[in-house]
Write a structure and sequence with these properties.
Layout (H helix, E strand, L loop, with lengths): L2 E3 L1 H15 L3 H17 L19 E5 L2 E7 L3 E8 L4 H5 L3
Length: 97
C-alpha cells in the first residue's frame, strides 16, 4: 500500500532532525532516514499497529519507534499524520479543541 507523509509529519521530522543535529549532525541524518523507513514499512501491514486507545472512532493508529510515535490512518493509502516524541501531549496535537 502507498504511504504518504502529511505536511505536519514532514515538519515533525524536520524539527526532530534539527534537534538531534545540534549535538550529532550525522546521527540526525541517519535517524531521520530510519524513521522514514519505519513509515514506509507501514504500507506492508498497515493494520498491524493498534488504534489509539479511547479514540478508536478517529481511525488513527500508532506505531512505536524508539522514543517516538508515528501516528497514521489507513484508507486507500497509509497517511502519516505526525511523528512525535512519546513524552509530548499527543492528544492535544492530534485532537485540538
Amino acid at each position: 500500500m502507498k504511504v504518504v507523509l502529511t505536511a505536519n509529519a514532514e515538519a515533525d521530522l524536520e524539527a526532530i532532525g534539527d534537534w538531534i543535529a545540534e549535538d550529532a549532525p550525522q546521527r540526525a541524518i541517519s535517524f531521520i532516514s530510519e524513521i522514514r523507513q519505519a513509515c514506509e514499512q507501514l504500507g506492508e501491514m498497515p493494520k498491524a499497529h493498534p488504534l489509539l486507545p479511547g479514540r478508536e472512532a478517529a481511525g488513527i493508529r500508532r506505531r512505536v519507534f524508539g522514543n517516538y510515535l508515528i501516528f497514521y490512518t489507513v484508507n486507500t493509502q497509509v497517511e502519516v499524520l505526525h511523528v512525535l516524541h512519546g513524552a509530548r501531549d499527543y492528544d492535544a496535537i492530534l485532537f485540538p479543541r
